[in-house]
Amino acid sequence: MNLNDVLNDYLDKNNKCEHLAISIEEINGNIKYYYNELDEMPTASTMKLFVLGALLKKCERGLEDLNRLVKVEKENFYLGSGVMKYLSSGISLKIIDLLTLMIIVSDNSATNLCVDLAGGVEEVNKHIKELGITKAVVNRKVYDPNPNKLPLSLVAPIAFTTYLTKIRTTDYLSKEYKDIFFDILSKQQFKDMFPRYLPLMDFYDDGKVEVFNKTGYDDEVRCDCGIVLLEDKREFSYAIMIDGAIDESYSFDNKTHHFMASIGKLFYDTVTKNK
Fold this sequence. Notes:
- Helix content is about 35%, strand content about 20%.
- The chain is an alpha+beta fold.
- The protein has a single domain, classed as DD-peptidase/beta-lactamase superfamily (Beta-lactamase, 3-Layer(aba) Sandwich), CATH 3.40.710.
- The protein is globular.
């Protein structure tokens, strides 16, 4: 069975989420899988990918410096995910470290600083448009004290996969900054959704798969998007997004995360068996 048949059959029998949307695309290949891929979905923290790209591009243009120290005061600390809020007020961190915290532990305090350093939400959206990405908009910062009542961000899965593929394959970012982009993603600490059951490479074993990803969750929203690099060097961009999760808990054994992980395992088993 091909990927479409395998995943459609699984979703017909097992999808209990209110709204599920998926985009999987082989980079420089022909394998594709789409399921509501044009639906604009709430992203939770996966929108931080765009902040990463926007600030790296600003640094590449010489308008910022990744090694510049930024002083972090108490008013820069925000609730939610991350570790910065537990650090001492007045600490100074390099921009590269703020970007790393934003991605690998989804630090909300680091995120809002990075949005400001990128030039604000408007500049992040300008960065998205520069790459020709549609069906993607960032509406505000995380935990904005003056929220505009819009979702943090609305993005279609196909916008995420197109974005990641363009960052990966075009010269929009130079090799130096492209390497930084994916090096940060490779250090992601949350791999309990789509890549959960894959034979991942890490510090402790010689797994077959590398994943460069960003997750996001907020109550009923669960999202994961990234790039999977297989042992045979084929690459796939993916985005799986859920609004109306079957399990809204923050447990490691969250049923929605296992459901997303099962989709990832079926994807892996099918594309490696049918190569």
